[in-house]
Every structure is written in structure tokens, then in C-alpha cells.
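Example 4.3 (complexes with small molecules)
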Amino acid sequence: MEIKSNKVVSINYTLTSAEGKVLDTSDGRAPLLYIHGKGNIIPGLEKALEGKKEGDKLNVTVAPEEAYGIRDERLVQIIPRSSFEGVEEIEPGMQFQANFEGHPQIIVITKVEGDNITIDANHPLAGEQLTFDVAITEIRDATEEELAHGHVHGPNGHHH
Ligand code: ZN
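Answer. The structure with zinc ion bound is encoded below.
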């Protein structure tokens, strides 16, 4: 069976930055399962997996545009401390979820200067060139229910 739209694909992977730092890996965990063609994974990786078979291994380097996008400096803003009502301590590196232009987004505090809080709504991996070391462990047809939901369900049909 080869990878094409609406197949459930299991992969083991290691993700490294352009500097060679390991950012994420399935090592020591269960493989990652996704539905091909549904945008479950980043476009550059999905494209590279198209047509591959069980047991294939690949090493793919993906440009930021095909990964988490390029950084948008307009997403860096300075807001007053008073926006964080009820938050005792505000420190760089803190993350929170906010509604940003209509969708939920993870926002990181990058700088704290008195009452001026700098926040960054870019994806933490925006602007990064990413390299994936991938081994394809299994390919199967997606079920009707999985296709309707657009994501993979567990082996016992349990909904997550
Ligand atoms: Zn579901």
C-alpha cells in the first residue's frame, strides 16, 4: 500500500532545527498517526510522504514557508500589564492561549519592562527550516468515521 489521500499513516520521526538541535521525536513514544491529505501535518512533510511505502525511510528538509510559516513581526506587540488582570507574576517565556484575530493561538511573553509586556503570537517554530528523519511503520485505509472527523481514532475506537 502506498501513501495517498485518506490513508492513515504511522511514522516514527525525529525533528531537528537547522542548527541540528532535536526539537521533537517519537523516540520512546508511540508512532505518530495522521490522515494523509487532511493537513494534519505540515505541508512540506505531507508532500514528501506522498507515494511512499511501508518501511520507507526518508530525510526531508522543509523550508519555513512549507512548515510553520515565516515570522510576522506584526504579531509582536507591546501591551500594558493591566491586560493581565489576575495574573500575579508575568515573566518572559510564559505562554498563554488567547483569541487572536478570531482563532485561539498560543502567545509567548518575550519581554517584561515595567508595565510594558512584549508578546509574540508567532508559532514558536515560525521562520525555522526543519529537518525530519522519518520511518514509515504502517499504512491503512481511514475509516468512514475518521474521514468524517478529519483525524485518527485509537485502536479501540475510543474518541479523543
Ligand atoms: Zn473524532
